[in-house]
Amino acid sequence: MPSRRQETALTTTSQEPWALAIREQYGQLPAFAARFTPKVQKYCAQNMVKAVENNLPSFGRIVSTYGEEGVAAIVATHITDAILRMGEDRDVDPYDVQFIASAICESDRFKTLRFTTVLGFFHLLKCGEFDIYGKVTPRKVLEAARKYAIDAQAKENRIAYEKDCREAEAERERSRANAISWEEFAKSHGIPDGDFASYMIRKGKEEAARRQFWRDLADRFIPSGL
Predict the structure, then answer these.
(1) What DSSP assignment string belongs to 66-91?
(2) Confidence tier at 40 by pLDDT (50, 70, 90)
(3) 171 vs 190: CA distance, rounded Å
């Protein structure tokens, strides 16, 4: 269940058109929190490509849409879930959890990542991808998050670049498909067998004949010496 803090955080949310569109798609904060529980972490971690190609909202826009406190409360549930499943000392300090959650929401390093990419971090954290041993401290988690964010941003950028390349190539293919072929151009301009050289020679002769016609006409009707 979303906390009272989550429910009241809407007072600091953005009213930009994109924020309204996000709330239209995902619902208000309680619905959003219910949708993105720790159960989705694995799916998020495994589907970064799909998230980028489908242009899911960035973490920064999610924070602006639902408010920093509201999103921090959601992130805190993911942190708590991760700590309970890792490390030798599984005591959860609420202050540490809130400190980590707030630091992630405030950091510029995470703002351009997809929101689902950030959630995927906690799945990898539980899987031991970051070699955190002993007591889980804010410093250890945030250092792991920093390293993950750098790597994830590079991956997201590469996915977006490859998508742009595919779209550009598809556009070139459409342009080629819509372009008139030389054979069609030759036929429409009366060029026999697509012989461009003969076509240019003929056009040259036609132009020369046209100029000669006007010279002859001038010689007949314009008195010499004028």
Answers:
(1) H-HHHHHHHHHHHHHHHHTTSSS---
(2) very high
(3) 31
